[in-house]
Structure formats: structure tokens, C-alpha cells
Protein 1
Amino acid sequence: VGYGLHVVIDHGNGWTSMNAHLLKSFVVVGERVDRGQTIALLGDSGNSSGAHLHYEQVLDKTVQPAVFNGTPFVYNTSLSSRNCGDSPVAGDWNGDRSSDVGVFRRQADTAVFRKLWPDGTTKLGPFGLPTDTPVVGDWDGDGQFNLGVWSSPSATFTLKKANGGEHVFAFGNSSDLPVAGDWNGDGRWDVGTFEPATATFFLRDALGNVTTKAFGSVSSLPIAGDWDGDGRSNVGVYNPTTTTFRLAMPDGTTKTVVYGTPTSLPVVGSWSAGSVSKLGVWDTATGVFSKRFSGKHTEKVRFGRSR
Ligand SMILES: [Ca+2]
Ligand SMILES: [Ca+2]
Ligand SMILES: [Ca+2]
Ligand SMILES: [Ca+2]
């Protein structure tokens, strides 16, 4: 009762942190969360005397002093965290049918996509907010990927149009995670959400029709790709703890691929020009993308800021 609505995060190695007196939580027990993810709204629940955040970090059940950027926190002073690291993305930025990589970088008040072009240059795409989750796809079907973000608090997608405009619409719930793919194979990418509590994908086509598919578990990270090359994207999940991809094949079977490290996040792309999607990971500890062409062939490229 004292802490009201609270979220405890298990950071591994005996470390946990608690965020208490929350107004609303966007996560469920067992869900895997990442840096930069909006997990809750600050509030005044429980034994609280006004809206504030009760933050605690604990090592082996003993509360530890909070330190931000090497500076011990002092009550009634202000410190900004700088640990919202890059999030990996992959898409065909230049339209040569081969996917490129990039990162979504959260800054103090803004966010920017940093896109690695095939010639080695980095192109910047300022878009979204630091509280957003990146989602990229070829929304207009011209062969070049476009930017987009998902806002958890408002459960809305904001997709950037090639002409500079934005397509904003509500979809899913605040506790969902976003995915993108061409579900109906018309060449224009669509979006969807994964609901961890029920391990269910909700895939939305351009007309607003929704297809549901139960796949994965509460701790799954959702992915999508065209695993069989028929032009329609399929869903899948990644579990960093076991470094295991599980892909939902169109014939109803599940394909399992072990790849990556426990500090990896999944990325999916057509690394060699073609319609079949390939797997990949970005290692948060090293900032290295590993693009898996086959079981025997991986290409590595370092890009983005390691954490
Ligand atoms: Ca490309
Ligand atoms: Ca496009
Ligand atoms: Ca489509
Ligand atoms: Ca397919």
C-alpha cells in the first residue's frame, strides 16, 4: 500500500530498481524492457504527499545511493540521466533493395534517426521524441524506407511521409510494443503491435483491418520479416536471455535460430538484395551490428553508441 503502484526492474547481477507512487504503468510482470522505453507515468499513488517519483536502486536487497552520470543524487536538486542509449533500426534507406542499418538516438528533448548509407556516410533524420520507440518501414511503397515512431503513453503511431507530412493515428494500447511489416504484400508497409501480457500480435493493414496472432511469450521482443519471400511479412520473436529467434512460418511451423549475445537487440533486414528477410542483432555492449546472411556468413559493422 505504501508504495502505491510501482514497477520493479531486474537489471541482473543482483541489481534491481523501483519506481513507486506511479499514476499508470505500461508494463506487465515478466516483460523485458529496454533503455529509453516509457514504462510508466509519474503519479501520487500509495502513501504519497503529492505527485513525485520514488526511485530506489537495490543491490542484493540493500538500498544503494542513487548515482547519475557519476554524481550522487542530492534531494531537491536536479540531475539528468544520460543513459538512454541508441536503439537499432534497419531499412532500405537508398532504395537499392538491400537493407541498411541505423540507430534511433534519444537526446534531451529531441530524437534523431542516424542512418548509415552504403557509401559509409551517416544521414540524420530528426524525428520523434526521446520517449518514443522507433519503427521504420516503406509506408508509401516507393522502395525507400521511411521513418516512424510509436508513443506508448498515447498509443499512437506517427509515420513520416515522403513529402514531409505525418500520418498520425491511434492503435493498440500503451502497454504494447510496435512492429512494422507488409502484412498484405501490397508493397506498402503496415504497422502492428505486440501485447506482452497475452503474447499476441495485432497487425493492421492500410484499411484498418486487424489480424491477430498469438506467438511468443510475455518476455518476447517482437520482430517481423518476410521469412519465406512471398512478399508478405510474418512475425517472430527474440529472446536475448537465450539468444533465440523464433519465426512464425506461413505454414504454421516455427523456425528457431540461435544468434546473438545476451546483450543483443534484434534487427531484421534484406541484407542481400531480395525479398527474403534475414536476421541480425545489434550488441548494446559493443555497438556492433551483426548481419546474418546464412548460418555460415555474418557481416559485422560498428555503428551507433554502445551503452
Ligand atoms: Ca539499401
Ligand atoms: Ca518510401
Ligand atoms: Ca501493406
Ligand atoms: Ca511471407
Protein 2
Amino acid sequence: MTALLQVEGVGKRFGEFAAISDVTLDLRGGETLGLIGPNGAGKTTLFNMITGFLKPDAGSLRFDGAAIDRLAPAQRVARGLVRSFQKPMLFPALALRENIAMAARQHAGRGLSWWGGARATRAANDEADRLLIEAGLQHRAEARVADLAYGEQRMADLLIALALRPRLLLLDEPTAGLAPDEARRLLAIIRRHDEGTSVMLITHEVEIAFAACDRIAVLNLGRLLCLDTPAAVQAHPAVREAYLGALAA
Ligand SMILES: Nc1ncnc2c1ncn2[C@@H]1O[C@H](COP(=O)(O)OP(=O)(O)O)[C@@H](O)[C@H]1O
Ligand SMILES: [Mg+2]
């Protein structure tokens, strides 16, 4: 497997504070890579650099073999590097189906224009319906996103991201605040799509990472402790000491 994403010696400081120091990792095509670590480890900071919302002070990023350091977030999305959007990116006054269909049309290259033809509209609506059925949300298709419950909105974030057909889907704590059955359903959707889509899944819930990921990267104090299979990570002495000690006890 060749690397889809290569993070090479990346660092980020906030003033004197080094939030990320010299992190090198690769994400292989087709894999689900977990990114775990205690609160404040630098997970979101690394994620923001990969998606282009923060500029690294050091190092480089390559996606599908090409440097992406100079690309704006939207340009990275156009190459297939998609983060789940979270509420501000939804159109709250529009129906859930329309929100997902707009993302599907964006993928089809017609952007947000409404006049791309009846066929494109129908295809996008069909795609939205497929995703809604998969998520068990078809009964909410006509609901305004603003009227959705919190768990439904988090699922909507994911469906919109999937409608963009990402090559790499980046999810930052997608199950935060969800009830256990909602979290299970969301992870099942992610897994069902992980054949064609590589995934980077940030979570501080180690059980989720161990259950859902092919490999796991462990961050601690801004540094990469290890990157290995779930079993190897679980057995790693430095990881146990820094992070899993409480679990082992
Ligand atoms: N914009 C910022 N300015 C200053 N410090 C920040 C900023 N963003 C994050 N940090 C700090 O960097 C560290 C890593 O944060 P973060 O990447 O959010 O960690 P995680 O997502 O692993 O919980 C934390 O100590 C946090 O307080
Ligand atoms: Mg975070």
C-alpha cells in the first residue's frame, strides 16, 4: 500500500508552546487510521494543519504524492481531502436532504448552482436519499437542519462529508456527545464507506479507536509516541505509561 497522506516533520508552536513537534506519519490508501492521545496532545492542531486551517511552522504535507502545503482548505477539499463539516457549514434553514444533495452536486462539479439540469438534481437527490436510508434518517429528510436533534446533526455532518465522496475523510471526535447507540450507528456508517475512502479518525476514546481502526497513531505532548496496529499499540510500553495506564490498572 502506498501512502495517500504523508506528514513529514511537522511542527506548530503557539507562542512559546510547542503544540506539535516533529510529527512524521503516513496514512495508507484504504486504511482507517486512528489518532488518539490525551486531551491537549495536539490531535486537533495536527488535523487543522492537514486540512489547511492552520499553517505548520515546520515540515511538509503531501497528499497523493503532491505537496499540499500551499493549498487553501477548499483546494484540499477539491482534491478529496474532506473533513466533516460540523454545524456552521450546514444550511440550517434548508431541509436535511437538500444539504446532502448540495454536497453531492458539489462532488459532481456543479458547485452550489441550482440550474445544473433536472438530471443532475435528480442524481444528487437520489444520492442524498441513499445516504439518509443508510443512516436511518429518511423520516427526517424534509426536516430543517436547524430542527434536528444534536445526534441527528452529527450524523448529518457525516452524511454531507460522505456525499462529497472523499478520498480521505478526516473526523475529529465524531462521536463526542452522542449516546452510545448513536455513536455505534455513526461508526457503522463510517466503516461501511471505508472501502473506497481512507479515514483519519481522531478520538480520545481508545475503545473506539481499537474497534474501528486498522492502525493507530498515538500523540502525547505534541509528539508521536507510536504508529502501529491496535494490538501493538496496546502493548507498547510508552503508550501504556503515557496514556493507557489508567486502563491497564
Ligand atoms: N490557537 C491556539 N492558541 C494557543 N494554544 C492552542 C491553540 N490551539 C491549541 N492550543 C493548545 O495546544 C495544545 C493542543 O491542543 P489540541 O490540538 O486542541 O489538543 P487535542 O485535540 O489533542 O485535545 C493544547 O495545550 C491547547 O491548549
Ligand atoms: Mg481536539
